[in-house]
Amino acid sequence: MQTMLQDESGYKHGHLWRRKNQVNPVGSVHGDILNIEIREGRKIMVQHVTPEPDHCVSNGLFQPIKSTKSKSNIPPKCSYGCSSENIVIDQIVTDSQTVNHAGNASSASSTNPVIFFIHGVGGSAKLWKHQVEYFYQENYEIVVPDLLGHGLSSAPKHKKAYTFSELSEDMLVLFDAFAKEENILIGHSYGSSFCVKLAHERSNQVSKVILISGGGPQSLKPQPCQIFCLPAFILSCIKPMIVNGFIKRAFKDPSQQAKLDKNNSFNASASVLHAMMNGQDWAEGDRNYHAALNTPILLIYGTQDQFIGIDEEHEMIETICDCRMKTVEAGHMVMLEAPYEVNELIDDFINQHPSERVVQRVPTF
């Protein structure tokens, strides 16, 4: 399959992430920022970080197409200081490129797994900035998409583009393009459902799953009467109120959170939010579906989460054979509120020896 690529500019902001004795600029772009037409009419922004210093040397997969629209003939510099036509940090390049996915798009030689991060409704890849910086330093290959309609991804107007089945198909195609022999899935909120779907559909390739504020093992269906049932044009008028309400409930203490984090936590258009909330229809994802998972799963739960109840997390533990939970003093946006704790929990789980796995009884229904 051939996929059209167009580079996009990255994230630039001044927050700092402290780990051990290092202080690193969070949001500095590592790797490639790719705008991939994953399927016809569906362009997904992907941050792809490879661990090797020579990762931006062409591996033969990228075939630049000449264009007279380029704003610069000078290849931008990557975070390692080398030149590449496949990476943009401080500018937008309008040259299109193609990549042939006859082989695997992941070309890094590291023996570490590929880590996929998937955000939830209203979020973007920016929500994973602390985790990207941490695991980049740990020499992992990282794939972080913006869901359709979010961040720098395209936003089709038709509502059916945002159903669970359509979005999960995007993630399956993306996974198949970048997956290696061993892969880790990390999802937040609604993104956890896509991780469960991937772990079920690609069980032989997914080695571990981390679900952050993911909720219980229930089927998804749109709520019959809630604010997102209102027409999109009305939601547009009251969107500031909706966003403010979300921020107050999503963070343990919003006053202590950086303004940029709060702005990025729920920042999709009213029409996309309307379609996303009404497209959460996944009858297949019931308790039996979750019980069939044979991949080790870590649940990370914020003790002050106002959207997900701890009873839902306990139900996940009772349902899935190899599942355990760690709690963090935080709200729903755990990875932003307590990045150090979350990163250490993920790191410990990834590196946990198989003999340390928690095996529950096989549930019967």
Main attributes of the structure:
365 residues, alpha/beta, eleven-stranded mixed beta sheet, two-stranded antiparallel ribbon, 13 strands, 28% helix, 20% strand
Low-confidence stretches: 1-27, 54-103, 359-365
Q: Kindly state the number of beta strands.
A: 13
Radius of gyration: 20 Å
Order of helices and strands: EEEEEEEEHEHEHEHHHHEHEHH
Helical fraction:
25-40%
Strand content: 15-25%
Q: Which of globular, elongated, flat, extended, rod-shaped describes the shape?
A: globular
Largest sheet: 11 strands, mixed
Number of helices: 10
Q: What strand line-up does the widest sheet have?
A: 6-7-1-4-5-9-8-10-11-12-13
The CA-CA distance between the termini, in Å, is 42 Å
What structural category arises from helix and sheet content?
alpha/beta
Mean pLDDT: 79
Oligomer: single chain
Short description:
With 365 residues, the chain is of the alpha/beta class. It has helices at 129-137, 164-178, 190-201, 232-250, 259-265, 270-278, 287-291, 310-319, 334-337, 339-350, and strands at residues 2-7, 16-19, 22-25, 32-39, 42-49, 62-64, 96-100, 114-118, 141-145, 183-188, 206-212, 297-302, 323-328. It is globular.
Q: What secondary-structure arrangement, pairings included, does this model have?
A:
Layout: E1 2-7, E2 16-19, E3 22-25, E4 32-39, E5 42-49, E6 62-64, E7 96-100, E8 114-118, H1 129-137, E9 141-145, H2 164-178, E10 183-188, H3 190-201, E11 206-212, H4 232-250, H5 259-265, H6 270-278, H7 287-291, E12 297-302, H8 310-319, E13 323-328, H9 334-337, H10 339-350
Parallel strand pairs: 8-9, 8-10, 10-11, 11-12, 12-13
Antiparallel strand pairs: 1-4, 1-7, 2-3, 4-5, 5-9, 6-7
Helix pairs in contact: 1-10, 2-3, 4-6
